[in-house]
Amino acid sequence: MDPPRAGRGGGLTQREETQLSTTASTTETNLALAREYVDRVFNAHQPELAAEYFTPNVKWHGGTLGTIEGPDDVVVLLQGFIGGLPDLNAVEQDAFAQGDFVAMRFVINATHGGPLFGVPATGNHVQWTAVDIYRMEDGKIAEEWAADDLTAILHDIGVYSPPWLS
């Protein structure tokens, strides 16, 4: 009996095995990069390091906050956000990666210790959930979709009380 032939239902060709291995390696590298970015920029409160992780034409999509383009402008946004929540801590709940995309879900805790969205510091504890999706390109973040629960943030800093929380 002949052994199964590669590429004919009996296994993978060397080229296919190499592609799978490379894809798995890239996916793992992308997930590690996203985790490092969150740890260094957000949890270590160093927004100025964000530009190291971005492509030159990065796009940050923030839903109702709009889209920010370019590393310098995204860093300014992050400096304002982290500056308003100086002890921010994002705890990863889930992370998935496939090819050039990484999706992460977080629970974030912070103290409103500086101006945020034009609201002076209240000292209030803030907690919300977020889902961030990153598209990687050449080992850097080319796009991010940030879906943070802004209602929870605004409620916790005391500027909005939705009817379902009253």
Question: What is the fold's blueprint, element by element?
Answer:
Elements: H1 14-43, E1 54-61, E2 67-69, H2 71-84, E3 89-98, E4 101-111, E5 125-137, E6 140-148, H3 150-156
Parallel strand pairs: 1-6
Antiparallel strand pairs: 1-2, 3-4, 4-5, 5-6
What would the average pLDDT be, to the nearest integer? 91
Helices and strands, in N-to-C order? HEEHEEEEH
N→C terminal distance:
74 Å
User: What is the name of the CATH architecture?
Assistant: Roll
The domain count comes to 1
CATH class: Alpha Beta
Radius of gyration: 20 Å
Structural description of this entry:
- The structure is a single chain.
- The protein is of the alpha+beta class and 166 residues long.
- It has one domain: Nuclear Transport Factor 2, Chain: A, CATH 3.10.450.50.
- Helices cover 31% and strands 33% of the residues.
- It contains three helices and six strands.
- The protein has helices spanning 14-43, 71-84, 150-156; strands spanning 54-61, 67-69, 89-98, 101-111, 125-137, 140-148.
- The radius of gyration is 20 Å and the shape is elongated.
- The relative contact order is 0.15.
- Mean pLDDT is 91; it is low at 2-7.
